[in-house]
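Supplementary Note 3. Input sequence used for the single-chain structure prediction.
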Amino acid sequence: MTVYAGQGDARRSLALLWGAPERPRTGRSGPKPGLNVDAIVSAGIAVADAEGMEALSMRAVGERLGRTAMALYTYVPGKAELLDLMHDRALAELSTGLPAGPPPADDWRAAVTAWADGLYACYLRHPWMLRVSQARPVLGPAELATMESLLRALRPAGLPPRRLRGAVAALWQFVRGLAATTADARAAAAATGVTDEDWWHDRSARLAELAPDFTDRFPLLTALQSTADGPPQDSHPDTFRTGLTILLDGLAASC
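The predicted structure, written as discrete structure tokens, is reproduced below.
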């Protein structure tokens, strides 16, 4: 299930993202104590974290807050605008673990690694974010700050603009892609009741029966598996670290 950001009212969505004063919609009752945009966004994140994107609705958020869905529309126009706010709020978590100033010229790799670690962890805390398409950005302050922090980390590398744009795209998509694979692996085990280890063990045994010449047909794959700790597991933490190191080695070589 892919969801596209920025589908709501652009004026109201951006005003909420950038902290414009709240104004109750004309014709509706006044604000009720204890209910505001922050509370609604927090409730929306809680629903999505617990039950996934499919469960997110204004009604579900209202029920978590002990209110009707209609009561929420005083503060947030609808689900589309709420999703933008939720996505940006989740990304705001990255700012707490990243340095504000530029990294030392000889330590840009550590700064990029910290950025990648933070984004990867954020996606795994909120896997519903991975269902939000990157085709159209939310354009909220936290999303733009996340991009700015990566550019700040890469600045000492001295990459020309074209390579810098490619580096940003490669790093962001690498983190997002591996986080999606890891999140899917976790979800698969929970949904099917079968662990990855059991899944691989069952199919490896059946392949050995059905293709006794497997080693001869796929010698390189067999060699790779024999040097690894069991069957391939993209969710293994070493995969993330190794892939990131390879990307950074390539960037360093192009500086």
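The CA atoms of residues 102 and 152 lie 6 Å apart. The mean pLDDT is 88.
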